[in-house]
Amino acid sequence: MKLLPLAALLFASFPTFAQKAKPTENLVQYAKPLVGTARMGHTYPGATVPFGMVQLSPDTDTLSYELNGKYNPKVYEYCAGYQYADKTIVGFSHTHFSGTGHSDLGDFLVMPTTGPLQLNPGTADQPERGFRSRFSHQNELAEPAYYRVKLDDHNILAELTASNRVGMHQYTFPQSEQAHIILDLTAGIYNYPDKNVWTFVRVENDTLVTGYRQTHGWARTRTEYFAMSFSKPFVSYGSRNLSKKQVYRGFWGRFDQTKNFPELAGEQLRLFFDFKTTAGEKVKVKMALSGVSTEGALRNMRAEVPGWDFEAVKRAGQALWQQELGKVVIESPKRTDKENFYTAMYHAALSPTTYMDVDGQYRGLDQNIHKAEGFTNYTSFSLWDTYRALHPLYNLLQTRRNADMVQSMLAHFDQSTMHMLPIWSHYANENWCMIGYHSVPVLVDAVLKGVVPADQAQRALDACVATAHQQRYDGIGLYEQLGYVPEDKSGASVSKTLEYAYDDWCIAQLAKKLGKADIEAEFSKRAQNWQNVYDQRIGFMRPRLADGSFRPRFDVLSTHDQGFIEGNAWNYSLYVPQDPAALIAKMGGEKKFLPHLDSLFTMHLPDKFFAETEDITRDGIIGNYVHGNEPAHHVAYLYNWTSQPYKTQARVRMILPKMYRPTPDGLGGNDDCGQMSAWYIFSALGFYPVAPGSPEYALGSPAVHGATINLENGNTFRITVKNQSDKNVYVKEARLNGQKLTRPFLQYADVVKGGELVFVMAGKP
């Protein structure tokens, strides 16, 4: 077949609007992949392209999920494989999640070494006993689509870049008669001894290796294929099989499979490839991935990176990032503002990730091979997080992609034996993490905003209704029967009830749009179920039991065993995004609601609050407002439903610098597949989607000095900020296309048709 030039091929599937409205400034310089790699951010610093299938990144440790037969809490730090405080690197693997609070992946770890061959990873305190290496951040550089580090123990400069489906390594070796490249198929993130179900490798020739591994982890049945190509022939190769002794091994024992044997299989394999190198010689490696087959991986490699020009792949990847970042061009005299904003834009374009080969084939939830017809198939849907702001952001900046993501969710539904939309899905698996059925607001919001073709609206509604009626899932049967989830039958019951009620409201909005009065009535009624867990006597949401009584043992500050998940009663009692006015009335009007809301940002939490959960730390909390977790992300905007919207403006401008800084420890919690970053983008621009499924945004206080949003439909939406300063956090006046806004809200339709929103700022409310 005829191969397109690399840059042309990489740009081919992207909208053309950005090519007409390119920013003149290099925006890539402001995106900092190292932000969030320290403490609880759980981001990775390695090389990837926007929504790329390959995330080629260093792993600083590969701790086991299991310790003495129990969960090892230390592994939580390594959800992205990398911790900034570490001083050694084990290797570079090709798949990573960004910002999650649980993990998987870390496929196909590669590590270059010199000297006597070592096929164990060593330890962090004694790296010289294995193939890992010390490194210094002074010799490390992370940019979009490029990562570089000096491996001190081996005197090797490692450089990484990537296309969508291919990771490219460039290793600059010293002169050595004993240079090696190790391929570790035992390594993984959230690993444990039995996670590998099977691995298979073929050495096709002296520059090409193919294979796969199947794992059993967060994804119960995950199979990933690879094709690995070297820029120069290896002089010898070998392997070590670390699999536990098998009762039956057939007659393969007649071969010595440890040296130069071309076909290997087992649960735990490590391979090595030997080279002789001259001083400064660059040995390059390409690793292409596929969820379908090794043939698919090879096809991906030949289509995307047919040659060995490392710099060309890097330039093409960074050009894609420039195009993505240029969808919003901000103005600010402060470099830190640009670094915060474009790092957030970067993190918001890391996932969901492409999950199909260049020919459209992908592995489905049913483990069969499907072909995406007319859409790109995506995976890694962290929906409990991302329905709130990330997918609404895509409805502005990534309309074509978000339409494809909806098609991917509907394909998941079609392949599901449970007849459900995804809850938290990745790599042809449903992992059932977190609560709610938050594909629903993603689908509904996209349909109502015209992002999804009208002929898919009924299909989307049918999938939403079927999901909401799946009684086997997480207390839904009891929820339908009682109007709430009882805590004595299903834990985190209050959170489930509140989130189901919001999702049900979304279904009612779509049913109304489609003229389905019976469905609208059913789900409008279900949307009121939040009232069934509100205890009027104490003014908080509270767990109820199956007999209808409120559970007597209750602590409004505790997060442990109180009916909530990743939050407590104080902040979750504010979770009625579909109807804040009704919530305010229920809580006794502004007189009682405002003190509750005010106190959230000013009260002090006792230390025991942090002892009960690994993913909430003081880094991510302001008072009792938990910005490091998602349930309260809309809360600062609730003042807009009261007579004091100026407090939203002050709270937002207070949260932004406290929770976001352009440093490795600059995220106040897990980035959660871009949700934290999407909150920043919206809030810095001055508005936020409190209730996806609604046509409205709530206004806040812009942190930028101006911005231009380049929309995929060719229109531009301009944000002009007058009298901006760190002290002028209050909006004195807001004008849309010259007309003064009388309410602190903005319509989606007004943004996408283009125009100008002018904020006039002041130092007093």
List keywords for this structure.
globular, 38 strands, single chain, calcium, about 25% strand, disordered N terminus, GH-type_carb-bd, about 775 residues, alpha+beta
Walk me through the structure:
The structure is a single chain. With 765 residues, the protein is an alpha+beta fold. Helices cover 26% and strands 23% of the residues. The protein has 20 helices and 38 strands. It has a 9-stranded antiparallel beta sheet with strand order 8-9-10-11-19-15-14-13-17. A hairpin with a 2-residue loop joins strand 2 and strand 3. The longest helix has 21 residues. The radius of gyration is 26 Å and the shape is globular. The chain starts with 5 loop residues before the first helix and ends with a strand.
List the helices and strands and how they pair.
Layout (H helix, E strand, L loop, with lengths): L5 H6 L5 H4 L36 E3 L6 E2 L2 E2 L16 E2 L1 E3 L15 E6 L18 E2 L5 E4 L2 E6 L4 E7 L3 E8 L2 E9 L11 E10 L2 E8 L6 E9 L5 E6 L21 E4 L2 E9 L3 E10 L3 H11 L5 H16 L2 E4 L3 H13 L5 E2 L6 E3 L5 E3 L6 E2 L1 E2 H4 L3 H8 L1 H17 L8 E2 L13 H10 L8 H12 L7 H7 L10 H21 L3 H10 L7 E2 L4 E2 L27 H4 L7 H7 L3 H13 L5 H4 L9 E2 L2 E2 L19 H14 L15 H11 L1 E2 L7 E4 L6 E5 L5 E7 L7 E7 L2 E2 L4 E3 H5 L2 E8 L3
Parallel strand pairs: 34-38
Antiparallel strand pairs: 1-5, 2-3, 4-7, 6-12, 8-9, 9-10, 10-11, 11-19, 12-18, 13-14, 13-17, 14-15, 15-19, 16-18, 20-33, 21-24, 22-23, 25-26, 27-28, 29-30, 31-32, 32-37, 33-34, 35-36, 35-38
Helix pairs in contact: 5-19, 7-8, 8-9, 9-10, 9-12, 10-12, 12-13
What is this structure, in a nutshell?
The chain is an alpha+beta fold and 765 residues long. 26% of the residues lie in helices and 23% in strands. The protein has a nine-stranded antiparallel beta sheet with strand order 8-9-10-11-19-15-14-13-17. Strands 20-33-34-38-35-36 form a six-stranded mixed beta sheet. The chain has a four-stranded antiparallel beta sheet with strand order 6-12-18-16, with no helix packed on it.
